[in-house]
Write a structure and sequence with these properties.
The complex is a heterodimer of chains A (286) and B (378). With 286 residues, chain A is α/β, with parallel strands linked by helices. Chain A folds into two domains: 23-113 and 207-218 and 242-286, Rossmann fold (3-Layer(aba) Sandwich), CATH 3.40.50.300; 125-204, no CATH class. Chain A is globular, with a radius of gyration of 19 Å. In chain A, a hairpin with a 2-residue loop joins strand 9 and strand 10 (263-268). Chain A has helices at 17-27, 76-83, 106-111, 129-135, 145-150, 153-172, 188-201, 218-235, 246-252, 270-275, 277-284, and strands spanning 38-47, 50-60, 65-69, 91-96, 99-100, 114-116, 206-210, 238-242, 255-260, 263-268. Chain B has a single domain, classed as ABC transporter involved in vitamin B12 uptake, BtuC (Orthogonal Bundle), CATH 1.10.3470. Chain B is built from 15 helices and four strands. In chain B, a hairpin with a 2-residue loop joins strand 3 (294-295) and strand 4. The chains are: A alpha/beta (286), B mainly alpha (378). The interface between A and B is large, with 60 and 54 residues.
């Protein structure tokens, strides 16, 4: 028994949490002195003899939807893992809001306001939809272990606030009616949505989406495009998107960077990228 | 959330239950009704095992870090508290006894000894946990097993606590102590699991990479659960030592660690009530099998170890996730089947849902709502 997938084009509902989130994002100055929220400078990572990412430069402006594309095996997900601290670059530097973040552990980078989804959905299988999202409120928890053990008023207040926040957030994405169900028992499309909700619950300033359209049919992809735009507008976020699906990337991204064999081969507006001979060669081969 | 009155009533009922159980397990019995001495002994051990199993479940079941060194931390708690009661308790009791009376002084000093056992075990847990929790799965299991044996061998070579000849300890433990600490253990673990900390622990079990991406410091939380688990193992050890009145390092071999593992695996990893059930069953079952009658001139009790093993295999084959799996047994058990998530109707009935999809959605939602309430849709 499974529920029908929610059409992603279903408009996000309600003001409230998202305005709160947006206000928070706006009130904090997200850009560094060069006007970028995220910068990579000659970021390189080697696995043994293989150079997976080679002297990658990248700079993402606040509020834009930035696409990172490339053929299979080009190193897109590796770049993501560099940005989120899963890997440490062999050389080069990564700056988030003007501060160096390379070499930090993933949770430290998350604490600074970078949140992500995964190419293969990584929800917490043993948890309900609501618990999945509430787990991501960890960074904003005011309760500590003793509050929990002694069930202090602070614990009760904190739990209630997180619960309400998460339900409201789920509600915006039309998922709150499934909150009591196992997160991984949802249909595929809703699991992707839930993963985005979970990432938003950390209240990020930069959202990284790793192949959000993977496994989606063309109409679902259209819905996804709308959803991504809506998220950016409503939550006032910067979004970095890894994708090899051209249609999604061209439809939603404002700037696109193309990588192949770990090297950046092109950077520009979608129309420029579409007509770039190097990109065409990388995708179609020679 | 139960009201204050309800909680107070539950607490009072628990206290009465523990006092009554204590009286029935003592040699005098309660108004002549008592449990035979032999079974009283078994039940005391069951109480200690409940503490061990529930605390190990926090590490293995909820945090998902497979540790098989629990007996080592139990040994540390047992020996460190026994060291206090053997060498220092009398002097402390004398100096305290004048002020608060002898009985109270005895209680305070023993409580202190238990807490010291807990703290020392917790520190040992920290020292062992920080390097070994970098490892995962089988590797972690082997390392914890190794540390537990190291602890045992070190104690075996400490003459101050008796060394190989064993350590004679004053008997202080009765069911008041064991029962109270079992309840405290269950409450503490329950409260931890249902909190932000608990969600962090469970998320590490479910997907460590995703947990880190959500801002959870997985190392910190793994060590935290390891230390808390070790502290309760230390408490169990302290109670155990002062109950058996004699400590030998043979009580703390890896066989005991495995016994605790069997309890939680059988009861259900990630279920508190499951590990309580597992602890009680695994403690009582072998003793129960001793009482089997002779059938056709053949004594079934002689086969108790075979039957015991066969039962374990049978349970694991039929319910590999443990008797309770990850679920909890409680008053909600019966109610849950009909319960829908609260506030369900307010959501989704309103705007935002395309009109043409609404009827289908409602039907699906109702069917799904039941499953959501039962949480059994696997």
């Amino acid at each position: 028994m499974s529920q029908p997938n929610l059409p992603a084009s279903e408009p996000l509902k309600k003001e409230g949490v998202q305005t709160e989130l947006a206000r928070e994002a706006r009130s904090r100055e997200v850009a560094d002195e060069s006007g970028h929220v995220l910068r990579a400078e000659k970021a390189t990572i080697r696995f043994g003899g293989l150079v997976a990412v080679n002297e990658l430069d990248m700079s993402v402006r606040p509020g834009e939807i930035y696409g990172l594309i490339g053929p299979n095996g080009a190193g897109k997900t590796t770049i993501f893992n560099l940005l989120t601290g899963v890997y440490k670059p062999t050389s080069g530097a990564i700056y988030f809001r003007g501060k160096r973040v390379d070499g930090l552990r993933p949770y430290e980078i998350a604490r600074r306001g970078v949140s992500r989804t995964f190419q293969n959905i990584r929800l917490f299988p043993g948890m309900t939809v609501l618990e999945n999202v509430m787990t991501a409120c960890h960074l904003h928890a005011r309760q500590n272990l003793f509050d929990a053990v002694l069930r202090t008023p602070r614990y009760a207040r904190d739990e209630r606030e997180h619960r309400e926040f998460c339900i409201e957030l789920l509600d915006i994405f039309g998922l709150s009616r499934f909150r009591g169900e196992g997160g991984t028992s949802l249909p595929y499309g809703n699991q992707r949505r839930l993963e985005i909700v979970r990432a938003l619950a950390t209240r990020p300033r930069l959202l990284l989406l790793d192949e959000p359209a993977a496994g989606m049919n063309p109409s679902e992809q259209d819905d996804l495009l709308n959803l991504i735009r809506q998220i950016r507008d409503r939550f006032d976020l910067t979004i970095l998107l890894v994708e090899h699906n051209m249609k999604v990337v061209m439809g939603v991204c404002e700037r696109i960077q193309v990588v192949d064999y770990g090297k950046s081969i092109a950077l520009g507006l979608p129309e420029e990228i579409r007509n770039d001979p190097k990109v065409i060669e990388a995708y179609l081969g020679d | 959330m139960p009201s204050f009155a309800k909680r107070a009533a539950a607490a009072a009922a628990l206290v009465v239950a523990i006092v009554v159980a204590n009286a029935m397990l003592s040699e005098e019995g309660l108004f002549g009704f008592g449990v035979p001495r032999y079974w009283a002994h078994v039940l005391m051990l069951a109480g200690v095992n409940v503490i061990l199993a529930v605390s190990l479940n926090l590490i293995n079941g909820f945090t998902g870090q497979f540790s098989i060194g629990h007996a080592g931390f139990m040994a540390i708690g047992a020996y460190s508290s026994a060291y206090l009661t053997v060498y220092h308790a009398q002097a402390w009791e004398r100096s305290l006894g004048g002020a608060v009376g002898e009985t109270a002084a005895g209680v305070v000093v023993f409580l202190l000894a238990i807490l010291v056992g807990a703290v020392v075990s917790g520190l040992a847990g920290l020292v062992v946990g920080v390097p070994s929790l970098r490892l995962r799965g089988d590797y972690l299991a082997i390392v914890t097993l190794g540390f537990a044996e190291i602890i045992r061998i070190v104690i075996l070579n400490m003459d101050v606590v008796g060394g190989a000849t064993g350590f004679t300890v004053p008997g202080e433990t009765n069911f008041l102590w064991v029962g109270s600490f079992a309840v405290i253990t269950i409450l503490v673990v329950h409260n931890i699991v249902r909190s932000d900390t608990g969600r962090a622990l469970i998320s590490i079990r479910e997907d460590e990479l995703a947990a880190e991406a959500m801002g959870i410091n997985s190392t910190r939380y793994k060590v935290l659960s390891f230390v808390i688990g070790s502290m309760f193992a230390g408490i169990a050890g302290a109670l155990f030592g002062h109950y058996t009145k004699f400590l030998s390092t043979n009580d703390f071999t890896f066989l005991r660690s495995f016994e605790i593992i069997i309890m939680i695996v059988l009861g259900g990893m990630g279920s508190i009530t499951g590990s309580v059930l597992g602890a009680v069953v695994i403690t009582i079952l072998p003793e129960f099998l001793r009482q089997l009658p002779a059938v056709g001139g053949y004594n079934l009790a002689d086969l108790r170890l075979v039957i015991y093993s066969a039962l374990l295999i049978l349970i694991m084959l039929t319910r590999p996730q443990g008797v309770l799996g990850e679920r909890e047994f409680g008053f909600n058990w019966l109610r849950r089947a009909q319960k829908r998530p609260e506030g369900d109707e307010a959501v989704g009935a309103g705007g935002g849902v395309p009109i043409d999809e609404r009827p289908a959605r409602t039907v699906a939602n109702e069917a799904g709502g039941d499953a959501a309430g039962g949480g059994e849709k696997r």
